[in-house]
Amino acid sequence: MSAAHTPEPWVNEPNTSKVTDYHGDMLTIMWDRWSGRDINIANAARIVQCVNACAGLDDPGSVLAEVRKVLADLVHRADTTEMADGSSLDTLRAHKLLDRLGGAA
Description:
With 105 residues, the chain is mainly α. It has two domains: 10-53, no CATH class; 60-100. It has helices spanning 37-53, 60-82, 89-100; strands at residues 10-12, 18-21, 26-29. The chain is elongated and about 50 Å long. A hairpin with a 5-residue loop joins strand 1 (10-12) and strand 2 (18-21). Strands 1-2-3 form a three-stranded antiparallel β-sheet, with helices on one face. The two termini are 25 Å apart. Helix 2 packs antiparallel against helix 3. It is built from three helices and three strands.
């Protein structure tokens, strides 16, 4: 991609499928006549959440893949060396976070 995208934060106006930049200038409107209003609103909100969550990451997919791998390695080490029963709070939190990230890369 040669052009830079609009800087974050992006905004999804409540109960609309409109996506704007932080100045209020419209970027896009999610519209799919087959999906319906609720899905269009949800899609717009999801796009804004993802764009804002990835602010500052040059390649979000590779960053998340690396985070998954590092976290999976740490969880594995914690499971096998520190507390085999996985009962430590940090180990449980790491397991939950890894699950939320979609598991190991």
